[in-house]
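Fill-in record for Major facilitator superfamily (MFS) profile domain-containing protein.
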Amino acid sequence: MAVTESLPAAMENGESKGGGDYTQDGSVDLRGNPVLRSKRGGWTACSFIVVYELFERMAYYGIAANLVIYLTDKLHQGTVEASNNVTNWSGAVFIMPLIGAYVADAYLGRYWTFVAGSAIYFLGMCLLTLAVTIPSLKPPPCDGGVCPPASALQLGVYFGGLYIIAFGNGGTKPNISTIGADQFDEFDPREKMHKMSFFNWWMFTIFVGILFSSTVLVYLQDNISWSVGYGIPTLGLLISISIFLAGTPLYRHKVPQGSPFTRMGKVVAAAVWKWRVAVPADAKELHELELEEYTRKRKFRIDSTNTMRFLNKAAVKDGSPAKWSLCTVTQVEETKQIIKVVPLLATMFVPCTLIAQTNTLFVKQGRTMNRHIGPHFQIPPASLGAFVTLSMLVAVVVYDRLFVRAIRKYTKNPRGIPLLKRMGVGLLLQVLAMATASLMESRRLSYARRHGLVRTGGVVPLTILELLPQYVLMGVADAFLVVGKIEFFYDQAPESMKSLGTAMSLTAYGVGNVLSSFLLSLVSRVTQERGDPWVTNNLNASHLDYYYGFLTVLGAVNAVVFVVLSSKYSYKVESTETIDIAMDVKGETAKVQS
């Protein structure tokens, strides 16, 4: 597939008055003017965005990492109910970006959608901090095993804060990483190489924020107060927003190009409407705008392909008076690019369900084990999540700095290995992690039976550190899967739908968390009816090892489906490998071609 770049009009007139060169990817400032490469973008602009993400992830995981403990200990919810509330909220957090991506691509642009989402996000954090601070907004502590349930007002304020955060996250999450990637020009070889490393270092920064939350903030929440544990991330979010806004003069922006859903719907409807029309053998007979039109609007033109040939009918000129039924070749090809990744997106749901266990059942599992180190210190159960982050950090650095540099000499792939192969390795490691969790839980249950703790539900005399293998394996798996997934959906999305591509990768988390709630509820209900429940409030009397085994099998089946689909997938050709740009610079014509 060939992509023809449309250059800003200012570029066609030569260099800038200051002697610098303009970006070639249609980047503009907030007023819509072309931008100089030397004045905006690059790692200088990215530094503000990356620091924002560091503080924002600290804020988000300051709430998410220990949420299941707050729901069970302070709001007095059961294990299944609390776990499902965590995954339902996480599902909302990661599904809302679809709305944010739509608003960004169709109306406000990424920058202003992000700013609006940040304001809403901060409001939710403030409400949560009040909910854990004001005594009347919390139920009384348990007294002699009797735990008063939270009132409707108390639940309303706390969950209201959570879901306001989810709504605000819809505006921030699909746009912030995309804004970061937009700071690098695809058509400049040096900047393109930097962009390929951007997602690795982007995730590295995220993991540093998560690491702080999983250790320092979780400890403060468990041992000092929830008010302090929530107040610090709220302040951190305010600092992160301020840092992002401070970098505004340095950012490159992309012009909103209309709703991707509307364009794709129009293509599908037009193709169905003209289902009897024959597609001409010569693609030049299909409807397409002149290159100058794309140049004027700073958009990209894409040549026709024969994949999903039926959709080409949408660009056939049939003389119909209905203007809606005639689409350009570029609109058709953009739709094809999105449709191609949907089956692979579906195979990301189960892996995201497995990831969800680290903040729910893994934490409750650790709560039943010996957490003492020395006579005075207890490890907060949610802090073991730090080892997911640590192993991920190490794996990302080793992958980017050692593995990629070594393997690219043989594969000739600038990424080292294709993105789908990277994701496949992550899927296999995830299956291994869940199998390890199942074996470890079986060992924990045998200790509980041996020490007569099945009925009482007491602490098993087994150190919580024995859970480390499942956390470390999950972290290494995430280094391959999570980073690869974000980069894949961003990279394979059309240039005009990058926010949608990022939102799709996040939506997998949302669906995966909702699927986790569904599976846990279903398995709990079915096994309860059969008289041998797998998951109850007393994990010593449960069969959590069976549930982990079930998830292991589910993950293995999903991995097989992914391998089959990925083996048939054809990547979108890199734009800079097929582009032929004619530029008039100082009266001379220069061609940029791979």
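KEY FINDING: The domain at 333-572 is CATH 1.20.1250.20 (Growth Hormone; Chain: A;).
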